[in-house]
Amino acid sequence: MAVKPLIDLYLRKSKNLREDDHRREQSTDTQEASGRRWADRNGYTVRHVWVDLASGYKADAKRPDFDKALAALRNRDTSALWCYMVDRFSRQGARAVLDVIDPADGTEPGRLIFEYDNLDSANERDKRWILNRAMDAKEYSDQLSARTRDTKRQQREDGQWVTAQAPYGYRVEIIDRRRQLVPDPGSAEIVQEIFHRVGAGESARRISKDLNERGVPGPSGGRVAARGDQPDHLAPCLRGVAGDQGRAAARRLPERGGGARQPGRGAGGRGRPAACPGRGGRQGPSVGRRRTPEPQEGVSPPHGPAAL
After folding, report:
1. What is the DSSP letter of 274?
2. For residues 168 and 235, is the Cβ–Cβ distance under 8 A?
3. Per-residue pLDDT tens digits for 149-186
């Protein structure tokens, strides 16, 4: 009885859903079923199934199974690598497939099979179409990325919060069909307390220990840890405010129950939190169309607990 040649399957989808989400493996399961049917029809034995839940477009995306699949093909552990579509293999352009089907170092090319596209790199006429499809996939991703960036830029200019997770002390609400940051009643008080205590000269270690003893959960739900000179309740958009200038600003904040500003009041005193620098150094939105006032000489910006 003749031994069937071996083939590997490479499956990929971009979105990594939670483990308890029933949609998590739906796409890759469908791809694997198609690959196994193709192998049966064409007399191959599936040696290994490689799966990545990652972007095929981002250059810095980690795809460990993709690298292993190509290594197996180079080492001749398998006779070919099957993939459902060219864009499931990669969205980084022609170079991603060219390095496999026509290596520049003169080594023997690997065989790539794309079932949906009906392309097989073993056929010389198919190679050009594989390269074309690879460029089509990259062009589509380039356009999608540009549209997404433009949309988020416009949303920021419109005062919307575009990051998925709100900073500790806030929550995201849809107001007039726009994603807005509003103070979260429970956690905002904790942030205010931290600012007051840091401004009064207490150490981060002492504040964190007290919060843990009182059973106050950290932002992730666990224990509170001190990072630098501030407890980890302070998100990146609030971190650094309680430094030297922040301590002076915190001393000027009214005590709870007195003064003009109350928890939930923004810089304008209208129940809106002031603007808050976003993660990665980006300037986050101010809630509503109001912009954060420019800081005046001798006056600290209206960040931090005054915005809560």
Report:
1. P
2. yes
3. 888 888 888 888 888 788 888 888 888 888 888 888 87
